[in-house]
């Protein structure tokens, strides 16, 4: 069971999205910890990590809602929130965007932020903490700031800059970065200690397993699913992966500059 504790110093709007969990309605004012006090259960769906299926209908039975009462501090324990966020990761602030063009920026020194910008063409800027920035849909601009940040552009042609620190550029689908300049992500400052994280992508779509990529350097694809390679155009470096073994790339990511990469630059 995952628990999210919200301690707010003043009235404000909080939006929470629940998955694979039990959510109840009622007032939440038990020492500023969300709890189901009156026992009225709207929907319960237990999916866990397997290949689960829900059969039948889910019906909303009331509209009582959930009430939050302010407290003294603000700490979010974000668990299983998005691929790449580890269980128990701590964030000092959480902000969720909209379908419009959002601008989000960290303004508390040393705090770790979780920003999910939503579906617009957004600009998201981290601060000095270890921030987790998610672009969502749209052509987004993500800047990590001075901490060891995680950047997940999502769909669209995103522009990602980790800035200082040991940063992670996370990809969860081959659809996150396309094959043309209009659809491909650009990482502007990939450097020593940074990582490109591909663990959420099944490198071999021809099997039922969740396979890892094999980095083959500058070699050409060999009609083997799961190969990841690099090439350059004289100015920038490109990484591309073949997930079905047809010898053609299924996604690309562009890195600014001529870089010689190694398998240690990736989480495969």
UniProtKB/TrEMBL annotation:
Pfam families to which the protein is assigned, alphabetical: HemolysinCabind
GO cellular component assignments: extracellular region
Keywords: Secreted
GO molecular function, one term: calcium ion binding
Subcellular localization(s) per the UniProt record: Secreted
Name this polypeptide is given: Peptidase M10 serralysin C-terminal domain-containing protein
Species: Zavarzinia aquatilis
